Structures are given as structure tokens and as C-alpha cells.
Amino acid sequence: MAKTIGVTLSERISAGLVVDHKLSGPVRYFPDNHEDEDALVELHTDALAEAICKQVVQAADGAKDLTAVGVALPGLVKNGVVEESPNLPQLKGARIEELLAAQLRIQGIDAPVTAVNDADGMAAGLASAHGKLDSMIRVWTLGVGIGYGRYPFAPGVWEGGHTVVTLDEKERFCGCGGRGHMEGIMGHRAMRLRFLDMEPEEVFEAAKAGDARCLEFKRLWHKALAAATATTIHMAGPGKIFLSGFNVRFLELPLLKDYLQQMVKMSPLQSYSLEIVEDSAEVRVIGAAVSAEQAAAR
Ligand SMILES: [Zn+2]
Q1: Residue 178 Cα, ligand 1 centroid: separation in angstroms?
Q2: pTM of the predicted model over 0.85
Q3: Which CATH number fits domain 131-276: 2.40.160.40, 3.30.420.40, 3.40.50.2300, 3.40.50.720?
Q4: In this structure, is the dihedral angle defined by the CA atoms of residues 30, 33, 34 and 37, taken in order, positive or negative?
């Protein structure tokens, strides 16, 4: 019976005890009220690590025989070091695995800590929830930025949200500063920069009502997703591709499928399937735990 702790870091810390790929007990949150959204950004690295450890200890609920602790965070993680983390900038450069493992040992928990990119954690959680731990799955998370997750873990960078989907020189809204990126079209932040006078919700509403500028953007938004998806299919092959994140509400699957059909023409590559799934804290916590368990077994 593998006991692991899964932790995710976003606006809040979520943590839960996972036994044999299932949550045992509730997911715990810090801070536990939704209003305090900047609470984590304001903590320096050591204080943030301390807050994470506190959640792990609580989630463990006295269990000392943990196989592993998995932490999914927004950013680029390599060999246990956070190389880039635009949403939690204080973590950049942190040896997060060592830092957390050392603090946990003081608390009496001696388990290896694995840090993964949050979209990869999400992919592992979806693979587990959909009984696909033995196949390759991918997920796009459509949120403030665009996350690209894949399961199983494979060494690499996988910054799929920054896939170049247009050569238009005016396309420069991506948070990373790069030109022509998918996130620069689809990311929530990028949409707000493009339509300074309208919220993304209003843009998609206006498109429905027939506003030409908004309708054109809605098509571009879907084409960007189709283009980046076509690229991953051409690079990694067909298979299951999940779509999640709070902005899947803008997604029209028939429109996406139509564009994708125009972009992927090689018949062995056409056996892909797309599925919209709810973005839940439970799936993400399980995914972080599953990622850590598999890393510990390697
Ligand atoms: Zn970018």
C-alpha cells in the first residue's frame, strides 16, 4: 500500500494523503479562504517552504511510513530546482526538493520529495482518474497562462503553451515576451491585454452576438489551440488529449475539431481524441502524489 502526499501550489496550497492512487481524507487548503489570493506571492521562499511542510504534516495525519511527497508547482522544474516560475517568482532558483525534504525531516517525515510542473501533475492525475496510467496522455490547461502537461514523465522542457502558432509580428501578448505564442492568444492575461476595453467573457459573448472583431478573435483563439495540438500530434503522435482550466468555458469542441482536421492530414496520426475535463483540486493532488511515487520507484 503506497502512501504518498500530493501538494499543489497555485494561488493556494492544496494537500492530501493519497493511498494507492486514491485520496484518503479531504484535500486541505492554505490559506483556507478564497479571498486571500496574494498570500503565497508575499511569502519569501523559506516561509513558503515552511507553509508547504505544515500542510504535508497535517495531511499525513500521523503517518510516518510515507513513500514519497509530490509537489506540483507552476513553473519549469529541472532536477529538483525551480528554473522559472512567473507566478511565484520567489521560487526561481530554489532547490525546492532539498529544501522541503530537509524541513520535513525536522518534522519527523523522512520521504523523498519530487517537484513537478503543475500541468504534468495534472496529466498524471487525469491518467490515474481515467485508468490510463499505462498510456501517454496530454493536457492543455487554459487559464491565466496556458499549461501543457504530459504523462508519463519524460525528460524535457515541454513548454507547450509557448508553441509558436502564428508568424504575425503583431502577436506579442505572451507573458514570456515571445512573439507568436499560443499563450499570447489564448491566455487570460494576454486576452485582457489585447482587449483593453473588454473582459474575455465579454469578448466571447460579443462573438456570439455577431460582433465582427470578436468573432474573428474567437476563430483565432480556436485556431491557436488547434495549431499547437497539431504540433504535439506531429511530434509525439496521436492519443488522448484532455482540455481543462477555467477558460474551457470558451471552447467549442466542434470548431476546434474542424480546424484540427484541416491541420492533421496523415492518416496514422488521426486517431487522436479530445475531451474536456473539469479542473479539480482532487485530480491535481492525486497527480502530484502519483508523479512522486513513480519518481521514487525509478
Ligand atoms: Zn510565451
Answers
A1: 5
A2: yes
A3: 3.30.420.40
A4: negative
Q: How far is the CA of 214 from the centre of ligand 1 (A)?
A: 22
Ligand 1 centroid vs 177 CA: distance in angstroms? Answer: 6
Domain ranges of the chain: 3-123+282-297, 131-276
Structural element, H or E, at residue 256: helix 253-263
Reading phi first (left if > 0) and then psi (alpha if -120 to 50, else beta), residue 180 is in left
Candidates 3.40.50.1700, 2.40.50.140, 1.10.510.10, 3.30.420.40; CATH matching 3-123+282-297:
3.30.420.40
Asked if residues 118 and 291 have their Cβ atoms less than 8 Å apart, the reply is no
Judged against a pLDDT cut of 90, whether residue 192 lies above it is answered with: yes
Residue at grid coordinates 496530454 = 138
CB 280, CB 244: distance < 8 Å: no
Mean per-residue pLDDT, 128-136: 92
- Asked whether the predicted pLDDT for residue 206 surpasses 90, the reply is yes
Grid cell of 263 as nine digits:
491541420
CB 183 within 8 A of CB 247: no
| pLDDT at residue number 64 | 80
